[in-house]
Amino acid sequence: MKTGFIKQASLALAASATVIAGAPTLARSSSSGAFEIPEGVQIFGQNDPNVRKATAVVNGDVITGTDIDHRLALILAANEQQLGEEETRRLRLQVLRNLIDETLQIQEARASDIEVTQEEVDQSYARVAAQNFNQNIEAMDAYLERIGSSPASLKRQIRGELAWQTLLRRNVAPFINISEEEVNEMLERLQAAKGTDEYRIGEIYLSATPETQQQVAQNARQIVEQLRGGGSFVAYARQYSQASTASVGGDLGWVRLAQLPAELATAARELTPGQLVGPIEVPGGFSIVYLIDRRQVLMADPRDAILSLKQISINFPPGTNEAQATGRAQEFAQAMQDARGCGAVDDVAAQLGAQVVTNDQVRARDLPGPLQQAVLDLSLGETSPPFGSIEDGVRVLMLCGRDDPQSDSGPSFDDLMNQMEEDRINKRAQLYLRDLRRDAIIEYD
């Protein structure tokens, strides 16, 4: 099933929050601008989100229940797993919030005389079809219908993204100025940090107030459970995170621990790539942290080495038990160690009835995690420990050549300037959208 395009197309969804209604004393702003809400508030009545928030009218534009159903189907397909009733209910609320943001973005673009043509939308839709269905638009249409969504729903999402991107290029980007001094200062910092550890981190941030803290913490724990059960971190970050990085799947990029809040830095230091931790209480809410990768600043990464490998494998006959397979694997591994290098291994393999496959363009980082370091530690002609299963047989990798990567000289002046500009545009965009939400007239049905 081809669902990758759904993840790529998904917009960021706001994190779930508990609505406090009817407190006995009205919340009021203090002179500092902070709300003063009494302790022990009493809730009068209970909102039913399945009824009250089924549809919404945003500045006169209607979001229907069908709109929500179709977008929800896209996200459920992207997750590739079944969700419980409570999780689905919360996700439905997130979808509605996302559609509201999308509507506001389209409206603001229209108010700025920015119109996304149907031709532009269709072209983007066709590119998605080309990437996922070999340019077969009809096949993608049928797939969307089959999962309970529709081409119109995805095209509306594409229209919103195109409109917002165009608006930012016109109304925000021209006012973002990065000086040469700022870029040069950042380049100097990078050089000064050469050789220090750098972390690529994914974060899902859920904001919380003292009143919603318990509920948000519970939501965060449930998200962690879903992620550890196989859920996509990128998809969940897009759906739930309230950080500005939600639209890129929570990816903070490469950072040094000193750049992170102390709570996150402490947690990240103990992680190995692929590990997850959370929820972590941070000022203003909770964070879930995922370590995507780790490297040293401006140093060549051994995992970028290009390897020439030979894979030698044998199969077990039907009925082989575990003890027999273990003994045969040990004999096979010993024979490979005695093969005296890549020039002789083909003849040894033929005597054993083994198959040999050669690949001269294997990037070390593309190997499965447990094999990466084992292969990188090999000298020419040496073999990895045997691996496999009774069903798939046993195999070893022999190192026949290795081209180490060149030292990383770091980003160029132009690349770094572009990155800094993009970061500031994204931050300004979050403020822009916040103002649109604040001024919107929204009626719930």
From TrEMBL:
User: In this protein, which residues make up the domain named PpiC?
Assistant: 196-293
Name of a matching Pfam family:
SurA_N
Specify the species. Answer: Novosphingobium marinum
Gene3D superfamilies per the UniProt record, alphabetical: 3.10.50.40, Porin chaperone SurA, peptide-binding domain
* Name of the featured protein: Parvulin-like PPIase
Q: Which GO terms describe its molecular function?
A: peptidyl-prolyl cis-trans isomerase activity
Question: Which region is the signal sequence?
Answer: 1-21
Keywords from the named record: Chaperone, Isomerase, Periplasm, Rotamase, Signal
Q: At the top level of its lineage, which domain of life is listed?
A: Bacteria
